[in-house]
């Protein structure tokens, strides 16, 4: 009997050791392959998910949730998973580090278009950005439509249009005019004028700059020179500050994860819809330390921060491969129109209304418009 024990003991010890080692190997392999959790976020309701949490001002609700749960959060919109980045670091992870996997476009199935057609014909909604069609579109924008040469060759046409607008406004002196629009450029101009009316100091400084550079008696008779306008430092700072406080696309356009990937130690699963809360990032007090919610164009004077997609604290046009290709056109148009309307007219609110009482509420939609459209009266310029 004792002999049998002696014989079996080493065998049972070997089996025990083998079981322990194999368990250890299995658990460590499992923990190695266990994916990190989804980003945190508010608890979803059954079926509808977090839809009721978003409210009418989704950019503000999402900012609020990022303050509670962190810079990368996730929510459920019905069955769709939504991941939102709300800090400079989270935006850089999405738009730079994981740009290749997170730059497909999320296209809502509710759009009243044939998806296949949309994919082939509209670059904005091209669901995939690794195919030749999308690359060809981008190359056409870069090398032809928005190349420096093309943009400069169309300058005269834009200058003529700006001069036509000034003549039109001269016929409307003293009348109340709506300064509203729904596209990205007009939205930016409406917010810039709103801020300039409220900030007399900035308006005067801009007028001084325009007078110094462009208002000799001869120049006043000529259309504005777009090239000169696009180099005016204070005007440039005003355009940047407007796009910082009032980015026309507050959540950019929705991206989609074409593959599962790990971002900031969280899993972003394939198919997730991804937003970057540009609005929240450009008001983040840890980045914009000097009174982030106030209109202060001076913060951009002497600063290298730009909207070309390298500074992740300031992303009105996005960054990475899906970044807006229209930047050169948009910035020239906005600067030219602002320069034309400020150089040629004194603007005031109707009925002697106090600019401090201007309604600054936003209306969240495809672009972030003023809830109450801006009403202004053009007067003959006193300078
Ligand atoms: C103030 C004016 C504008 C702003 C703030 C703006 C902003 C943006 C933003 C945030 C995106 C999405 C980027 C992304 O998905 O990562 C975008 C995409 C785009 N923008 Fe703009 N944009 C402006 C003007 C323009 C203009 C004037 C044009 C052309 C005439 C234009 C053409 C496009 C196109 C084609 C895309 C889609 C690019 C793609 O999906 O590959 N944008 N824009």
From TrEMBL:
Q: Which residues hold heme?
A: 324
Signal peptide boundaries: none
Under PROSITE patterns, the record lists:
CYTOCHROME_P450
Entries under Gene3D superfamilies matching the protein: Cytochrome P450
Q: Does the keyword Heme apply?
A: yes
Q: Which cofactor does it need?
A: heme
UniProt name for this protein: Cytochrome P450
